[in-house]
Design a protein that fits this description.
- Pfam families: UTP20_C.
- This is UTP20 protein.
- InterPro entries: SSU_processome_comp_20, UTP20_C.
- The structure is a single chain.
- This protein is mainly alpha-helical and 139 residues long.
- It has seven helices and no strands.
- The chain folds into two domains: 82 residues, no CATH class; 31 residues.
- Helix 3 runs antiparallel to helix 4, helix 4 crosses helix 5 and helix 5 crosses helix 6.
- The protein is elongated and about 65 Å long.
């Protein structure tokens, strides 16, 4: 898709690409700023190349305006999601408690996995299957 976006932007030219610049930059910006563990470096390099191509194509000033608007929009979305999560914690404490328990459980599993990786002789205790306990309501 990134190659397609680059090809379309070159094909449209300087004047016809300007209205679509924020739409094109949104996925490129998201890929550049992603913090996923399994991130593909080729995608990051490709998005950087296309951003450089767009910068040369439309000029620094127009590119900067579009890029800053994309950055602002992304930060607003992030803040809105954070605010909704905080409000959901207050509005639905049972859902928040379940989410917290799940997060703590995952953290403990990660800690055990890291210990096993660092010290292969050490075997962390694995939780037994508590099928009935897992079905119980969280208070």
């Amino acid at each position: 898709i990134f190659k397609f976006l680059g090809a379309i932007s070159v094909d449209l030219g300087k004047d016809r690409i300007k209205p679509y610049l924020p739409t094109i930059l949104t996925p490129l910006y998201r890929e550049l700023n992603s913090t996923y563990a399994e991130q593909d470096p080729t995608l990051k390099n490709l998005s950087q190349e296309i951003i450089e191509l767009l910068k040369k194509l439309v000029g620094l000033e127009a590119f900067s305006l579009a890029f800053s608007s994309v950055q602002k929009q992304a930060s607003q979305k992030r803040a809105m999601r954070k605010k909704q999560r905080a409000l959901q914690t207050v509005a639905n404490p049972d859902i928040a408690a379940r989410r917290k328990l799940k997060r703590h459980k995952n953290k403990a599993e990660t800690r055990k996995r890291k210990l096993e990786f660092l010290r292969p002789a050490y075997k962390a205790k694995r939780p037994r299957s508590h099928a009935l306990k897992d079905l119980a309501m969280v208070e």
